[in-house]
Amino acid sequence: MHQKKTVFLALALVGVLLLGALTLSANAQRSGGRKPQPKTNPLVAQGKKVYDANGCAACHAIAGKGGKSAPDLTRIGKEHKADWLGVQIRDPRKNTPGSTMPAYGPEQISDKDLKALVAYLSSLK
Ligand code: HEC
Fold this sequence. Notes:
Layout: H1 2-33, H2 42-53, E1 61-62, E2 65-66, H3 76-79, H4 82-90, H5 92-95, H6 111-123
Antiparallel strand pairs: 1-2
The chain binds heme C.
């Protein structure tokens, strides 16, 4: 009598453990098997940080946020190629003589950050 009860309890325990293991592995499969696509590419995300860190928004607006003293950049990726955008940041007067936009040298925005910033601007379409 006592033995039967022990066997029953042991079986019940095994059942619970199995169920738990199955649930865990199902969850692992769900999250690992089909990885969700990252929404933004990491270079673009880094470029947005560079944009924010350098105060571009003091003069420029993107999607309604930012200053109004300079052209809106909401669709800048449609208007200009990456090379042109890189020049615009390093030396605005090369693109537009008489431009009042400050130049950002490599001591302010590193080449790596410039690449990210240009990727971000190019993504604005
Ligand atoms: C002090 C204000 C000011 C700041 C800060 C500033 N800009 Fe500008 N920017 C301007 C002005 C004014 C123009 C328009 C003249 C010209 O095209 O050079 C301009 C033009 C541009 C253009 C070309 C826009 C077009 O439609 O042709 C881009 C791209 C740009 N800026 C990006 C940036 C980025 C990126 C930053 C931050 C790293 C930045 N700007 C910081 C004032 C600013």
